[in-house]
Amino acid sequence: MQGRIIKSTGQHYWIQHGSNIIKGILRGHMRLEGRKTTNPIAVGDWVEFNLNSDNDAQIKTLLPRTNYLIRKSVNLSKQVHILASNIDLAVIVASWKMPKTSSGFIDRFLITAEAFQIPVLIIFNKADLLSSDETRSLQTLIQAYTLLGYQSIAVTAKDEAGVKKTLEPLLKNKVVAFTGHSGAGKSTLLNCLCPELKLKTNSISDQHEKGKHTTTFAEMHQWQNSSFIIDTPGIQEWGLIEIQAKDLHLFFPEFKNYRAACRFAQCTHSHEPQCAVRNTFEVEKNLLWRYEAYLNMLQSDEFNWNSWER
Ligand SMILES: Nc1nc2c(ncn2[C@@H]2O[C@H](COP(=O)(O)OP(=O)(O)OP(=O)(O)O)[C@@H](O)[C@H]2O)c(=O)[nH]1
Ligand SMILES: [Mg+2]
Ligand SMILES: [Zn+2]
């Protein structure tokens, strides 16, 4: 029997099989095979399973994934985690404040999605909290991401009808994954789209202006006939994984038109003479911040420099 994982607690899995939802567990060997990640089976995965005499599922095979969103934590545990798989659209719910989403976090999300060519949408939520100066700065950032080819918009969940009108055409008839920091408003936005879901939400902590990790397990919610959204628990950091330093530049779409003009075929676009990428972005100042973000990432310890091949 085949089905799709719609919820996982790590211990238990819920599988959509036709119109039924079956609770199941993993066969032991699968836990071992997936030991690279904290979750060998992720929400969105297609699996093969058997039913035991109590009508519980035993998951025996993971079917090949078309894509997935993967990250590692940057803290000491360095845990690797698949947020969702087999998706049509990856959405980052970001907020300018309460909590602040850094551009480094957004860039790492974009690079991860680029690795599988997953279409993305950047939603800047909580527009109601911004001063007019902050609104102007946000508009500049939105224009910059749009220029790079990433659809990005500002919304406020305070305006439920506005959210529905803006997001419905962008999200319907797709399998969409929502990710972002805790407290950015992922579950609140989903409730705007489909109030019947009644997803739990929680206020931001007064002291740290951070979320309280209200959503604890990833879960795929059907909100229209053929529309699905995976709500995921908020994450603090987005460490890159499965990407080598020498390939990082491939995931910056704005470099594409210039790379071939670099003097060296293996140019890292950092220190080499006659680098067309560096020459371009040092002149075109409006995207210099992304080039600088690239240089910062290259130097970060996310990459294993031993694997650098020249
Ligand atoms: N002012 C304002 N508050 C919002 C907006 N969207 C969400 N909130 C509030 O922000 C808080 C956190 O929202 P949640 O939907 O729980 O955030 P989340 O991203 O699901 O967080 P986790 O489940 O912890 O990952 C709640 O108190 C929401 O009411 C918004 O657009 N404006
Ligand atoms: Mg939530
Ligand atoms: Zn170069």
Q: How would you describe what is shown here?
A:
The protein is built from eight helices and 13 strands. The chain has three domains: 2-62, Nucleic acid-binding proteins (OB fold (Dihydrolipoamide Acetyltransferase, E2P)); 68-231, Rossmann fold; 245-307, Ribonucleotide Reductase Protein R1, domain 1 (Orthogonal Bundle). The chain is α/β, with parallel strands linked by helices. Guanosine-5'-triphosphate binds at residues 125-126, 128-129, 156-158, 180, 182-188, 201-204, 211-215, 233-234. Magnesium ion (MG) binds at residues 186-187, 214-215, 231.
Features:
6-stranded mixed sheet; 13 strands; 5-stranded mixed barrel; about 25% helix; Rossmann fold; about 25% strand; 3 domains; Ribonucleotide Reductase Protein R1, domain 1; 8 helices; alpha/beta; globular; single chain; OB fold (Dihydrolipoamide Acetyltransferase, E2P); about 300 residues; binds guanosine-5'-triphosphate; binds magnesium ion; binds zinc ion
Helix-strand topology string: EEEHEEEEEHEHEHEHEEHHH
Helix and strand composition category: alpha/beta
**Helix run count:** 8
Helix content: 25-40%
Domain module tally: 3
Shape: globular
CATH architecture of the largest domain: 3-Layer(aba) Sandwich
Q: Runs with pLDDT <50, length 5+?
A: 306-310
CATH C-level name of the largest domain: Alpha Beta
In short:
Helix content is 25%, strand content 24%.
List the helices and strands and how they pair.
Layout: E1 2-8, E2 13-17, E3 20-26, H1 28-33, E4 46-51, E5 57-62, E6 68-72, E7 80-85, E8 89-95, H2 103-115, E9 120-125, H3 132-147, E10 151-154, H4 160-171, E11 175-179, H5 186-193, E12 219-224, E13 227-231, H6 256-259, H7 276-283, H8 288-299
Parallel strand pairs: 3-5, 8-9, 8-11, 9-10, 11-13
Antiparallel strand pairs: 1-2, 1-4, 2-3, 4-5, 6-7, 12-13
The structure holds guanosine-5'-triphosphate, magnesium ion and zinc ion (ZN).
